[in-house]
């Protein structure tokens, strides 16, 4: 495990420790529109501060909340809280997303954590995708369900036409509301689908964790599946719209 991934884990453990006894009332307060275009909460900024403390030594940070922080040849792309609306609604599907891009522009590390259940996923240029738990030193290949019955469709609420087509094709889904986390679970579910604006904060780490899966990335949609036939079937439905 690289020093960078260890630092990401330490940051996530510090955030998780702060959350374990409940959310501070101030974290629900909204501040201003962040660099990613969404309104930041004080929870987002709290998590960002912890990541900056642990990761600034590795390079320049580009955060969804504050934009560019610090300097360095390598770039670290972070979404301090992936699924902020879930977190602030106390819905247990929210986490963090970190990706590191080296001086040559190649992504060489990715870490996504589900703060609600402590699942953590990581990959580096020298290791394949691994899954484990915060506060544990045991890691393994990602869990996979060969009989998965559902996919994950992020932004389903904004795409009623595709929702209807998926229903006709009996392609069941849930829409949990945290794209990096959904991509981290792509090995488990039947498929992951996203329709909408492609933002680097949402996808840099999550897509890196989809190693070995069928991945289709276009300007306005992303499809990931263990089965090529499912991915191409969904793409054909999108092209009908």
Description:
This protein has helices at 3-19, 42-55, 84-88, 160-168, 179-184, 200-208, 228-240; strands spanning 30-33, 39-41, 60-63, 67-69, 75-82, 95-101, 107-114, 119-124, 127-133, 139-140, 151-154, 173-174, 191-195, 214-217, 221-225. The chain is an alpha+beta fold and 241 residues long. Strand 3 and strand 4 (67-69) form a beta hairpin.
List keywords for this structure.
eight-stranded mixed sheet; 241 residues; 30% helix
Quick summary:
With 241 residues, this protein is α+β, with helices and mostly antiparallel strands. The chain has helices at 3-19, 42-55, 84-88, 160-168, 179-184, 200-208, 228-240; strands at 30-33, 39-41, 60-63, 67-69, 75-82, 95-101, 107-114, 119-124, 127-133, 139-140, 151-154, 173-174, 191-195, 214-217, 221-225. It has 7 helices and 15 strands.
Write the layout of secondary structure elements.
Blueprint: H1 3-19, E1 30-33, E2 39-41, H2 42-55, E3 60-63, E4 67-69, E5 75-82, H3 84-88, E6 95-101, E7 107-114, E8 119-124, E9 127-133, E10 139-140, E11 151-154, H4 160-168, E12 173-174, H5 179-184, E13 191-195, H6 200-208, E14 214-217, E15 221-225, H7 228-240
Parallel strand pairs: 3-5, 11-12, 11-13
Antiparallel strand pairs: 1-2, 3-4, 5-6, 6-7, 7-8, 8-9, 9-10, 13-15, 14-15
Helix pairs in contact: 1-2
H/E topology pattern: HEEHEEEHEEEEEEHEHEHEEH
Radius of gyration: 17 Å
Largest sheet: spatial strand order: 4-3-5-6-7-8-9-10
Q: Give the helix proportion (percent range).
A: 25-40%
Main sheet properties: 8 strands, mixed
| N-end to C-end Cα span | 45 Å
Strand percentage: 25-35%
Average pLDDT reading? 94
Spans with pLDDT under 50 lasting ≥5 residues? none
The number of helical elements comes to 7
Total beta strand runs: 15
- Label the overall shape: globular
**Structural class based on helices, strands and sheet pairing:** alpha+beta
């Amino acid at each position: 495990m690289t020093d960078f991934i260890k630092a990401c884990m330490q940051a996530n453990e510090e955030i998780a420790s702060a959350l374990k006894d409940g959310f501070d009332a101030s974290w629900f307060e909204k501040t201003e529109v962040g660099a990613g275009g969404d309104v930041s909460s004080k929870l987002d900024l709290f998590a960002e501060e912890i990541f900056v403390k642990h990761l600034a030594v590795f390079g320049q940070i580009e955060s969804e909340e504050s934009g560019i922080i610090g300097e360095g040849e390598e770039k670290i792309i972070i979404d301090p809280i992936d699924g902020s609306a879930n977190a602030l609604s106390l819905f247990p599907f929210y986490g963090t997303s970190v990706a590191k891009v080296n001086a040559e522009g190649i992504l060489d590390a990715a870490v996504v954590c589900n703060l609600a259940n402590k699942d953590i996923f990581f990959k580096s240029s020298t290791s394949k995708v691994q899954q484990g738990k915060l506060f544990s030193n045991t890691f393994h290949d990602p869990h996979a369900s060969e009989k998965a019955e559902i996919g994950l469709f992020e932004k389903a609420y904004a795409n009623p036409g595709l929702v209807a087509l998926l229903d006709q094709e009996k392609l069941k889904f849930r829409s949990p509301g945290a794209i990096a986390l959904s991509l981290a679970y792509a090995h488990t579910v039947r498929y992951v689908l996203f329709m909408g604006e492609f933002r680097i904060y949402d996808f840099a780490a999550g897509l890196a964790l989809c190693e070995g899966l069928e991945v289709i990335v276009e300007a306005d949609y992303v499809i990931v599946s263990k089965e090529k036939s499912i991915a191409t079937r969904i793409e054909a439905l999108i092209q009908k719209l």
